[in-house]
Design brief:
The chain has 155 residues and is an alpha/beta fold. It has 5 helices and 6 strands, in the order E-H-E-H-E-H-E-E-E-H-H. A 6-stranded mixed beta sheet has the order 2-1-3-6-5-4. Strand 5 and strand 6 form a beta hairpin. Helix 1 runs parallel beside helix 4. It is globular, with a radius of gyration of 15 Å.
Length: 155
């Protein structure tokens, strides 16, 4: 199998604990699908067989933290600090874009250069609600517009 070009990836990170695998990983796949759809509509069509310039990939927090090349990529972390080591790291590094009743949070820098986000709740149901809100209220779109703008600037 050929090496994966990490320079194209948008990691969507979940924890490796059983609760995260059972609850957050399906949410991450949902976000991954939304990212694929957004990128397909927003980026110019490529000739058949040519790889897209950006691609989402669901990965574990352990893989992400042990793969230095991924840590400089735009990142979406799903699940709270108790089940996702990347969210635990980001909780102190990212501003809160949205908090509802201290039960769900969307953390991301809406105006700066930090292209990382954390989407989580105090329990699984709240994390589901946080992901729903991330998608429905345009946070993912805002994030991806900034990712595309950065990629175009760097190409």
């Amino acid at each position: 199998m050929a090496d994966v070009d990490t320079e194209r990836l948008i990691p969507i990170v979940t924890g490796i604990q059983l609760n995260a695998e059972l609850g957050d990983r399906p949410l991450a796949y949902r976000i991954e699908q939304a990212v694929r759809e957004y990128l397909a509509a927003a980026l110019p069509q490529r000739p058949a067989g040519e790889l897209p310039p950006l691609a989402p990939a669901v990965v574990s927090d352990v893989f992400y933290l042990n793969t230095e090349a991924l840590q400089s990529r735009p990142t979406i972390s799903i699940g709270g600090p108790g089940v996702n080591a990347v969210s635990a790291m980001l909780v102190e590094q990212l501003p809160t874009a949205l908090a509802i009743d201290d039960t769900l949070l969307i953390q991301m820098d809406l105006e700066g250069d930090d292209l990382r986000s954390a989407v989580w709740g105090m329990n699984h149901l709240d994390t589901v609600r946080a992901c729903d809100t991330f998608l429905a209220k345009g946070y993912l779109d805002t994030f991806l517009k900034r990712v595309i703008a950065r990629e175009e600037l760097n190409s």
